[in-house]
Amino acid sequence: MSAHKKLTVDRVFHALGDPTRRAIVEKLSEGPQSASRLVPPLKVTLTAVGQHLQVLEECGLVRTEKTGRVRTCSLQPGGLSILEQWIRDRRSLWERRLDRLGDLLSDE
Question: Residue 24 in contact with residue 49, Cβ under 8 Å?
């Protein structure tokens, strides 16, 4: 795995490791929201939401766009693709290992 890809996987896992950021991703899965609409259900300040959004945006999970005074946030499902690939790679590795173990055990 390249250093860049690993860094990206690490950043996405780090971003999703925070319960507030996971809640933001969940809320945005319902559709685009203004940053200010994310504040009440999260019970944090607008500044805190902005900081969480920045982390999510840096790892490609969220996109924000400012029009006038309103910052609209939307989920970028493609940002999860790096995690999907990472999980597929791990699953494939373990399935091959378990198949080899099964072959060894059936030979006895």
Answer: yes
Instruction: Give the pair of three-digit tokens for residue 54.
Output: 């920045």
- pTM for the complete prediction? 0.76
Phi, psi dihedrals of residue 45, rounded to the nearest 5° = -80, 165
Distance CA 48, CA 43 (A): 10
Across the chain, what does the average pLDDT equal? 87
Among 53, 59, 63, residue whose Cα is nearest residue 9:
59
Q: How far apart are CA 59 and CA 78, in angstroms?
A: 11
How far is residue 82's CA from residue 94's CA, in Å, rounded to a whole number?
Answer: 19
The full set of domains in the chain, from first to last, is: 3-107 (1.10.10.10)
Strand residue runs (E) in 1-108 = 33-34, 62-67, 70-75
